Amino acid sequence: RLMKEWSSPIYAFFQPIPTIEYHDQRRCHVFKCAAHGCNHRVRRYLDKKDAKSTGNMRKHVKSCWGQPALQAAMDCGNTTAAQDGPIKSLLETGSIKTSFDHKGKGKVTYSHHQHTRTETRVLMKTGRPEYYIPSPKTVARDVRQVFVRTRARIARMLQDYPGELNFATDVWTLLNHGAFVTVSVHLEHEGQALSMILDIVEVAKSHTGANLAEAF
C-alpha cells in the first residue's frame, strides 16, 4: 500500500520491493542498492515522523552512483521514467549518454575543462558504482612495493644471465637545460630480443665519455 506513494526517482536506484525488518523492536523498511556488487542497505524506520524521507537514500546514491547519475534520474520526474531511462542505461551499458539520447534533449555536449579531484572520483564511479577507488596513499604504497619487487627480480635475472649483456646510453637536454642520460640493457631472453630501461640519471655537466661512464 505504501509503495503506491513512492514515486520519487530516487527509488529507481534500489531494489523495487524493500524488506521489512525489526531492529531494536522497531519496524523498518530496508532498501537494498541495485548497483552491481553493492550490498549497501538503507533503513527507514516507520515510527518516525519522517518515515517517508529519502534523505539517506539520496546520500548513498550520490556516493555510490555519482552526482551525474543522480541528477539524470531526478530530471526524469518519477520512478518509472528513471528506471526505464538512465538507470537501465547505466546497468546495461555503464553510460548515461544513451538515456540522454532517448529523452530527446538534443545533442550531448562535452566539456574539456579539467575536473577537480572530487569530480574525478565521482565520474570514475558513474556507471560502475561497484568499483573500489583506492586512496592516493594506497596507490603510492602499492606502486613502491611493485617497483621494489620488480627491481629485485630484474637484478637477479641479469646477474644470473649466462650470456653477454649489451648496455646502451641515450642522452638529451630538456628545454629548461636539464641534462639526462638513460641506461638500457639489451639481451636475448627465451629466444626473443629483450630491451629494458634500467635508470634515468640527471647529468648536469658536459656529456663526455668520461662523465657518462661515471654516471653509468
Structure write-up:
Helix 2 packs antiparallel against helix 3. A hairpin with an 8-residue loop joins strand 2 and strand 3. The protein contains seven helices and six strands; from the N terminus they run βββααααααβββα. It is elongated, with a radius of gyration of 28 Å. It starts with 18 loop residues before the first strand and ends with a helix. By secondary structure, it is α+β, with helices and mostly antiparallel strands. The strands form two sheets. It has a three-stranded antiparallel beta sheet with strand order 1-2-3. Strands 4-5-6 form a three-stranded antiparallel beta sheet, with no helix packed on it.
Topology diagram in text:
Layout: E1 19-23, E2 26-32, E3 41-45, H1 55-64, H2 67-74, H3 79-93, H4 97-102, H5 117-125, H6 136-159, E4 166-173, E5 179-189, E6 192-202, H7 209-215
Helix pairs in contact: 2-3
Give me the count of strands: 6
* Rg, Cα atoms, Å: 28 Å
Order of helices and strands: EEEHHHHHHEEEH
Unreliable spans are none
Number of helices: 7
Global morphology: elongated
**Fraction of residues in H or I helices:** 25-40%
The rounded distance between the terminal residues' Cα atoms is 78 Å
Mean pLDDT across residues: 80
Backbone structural class? alpha+beta
Beta-strand percent range? 15-25%
Strand order of the largest sheet: 1-2-3
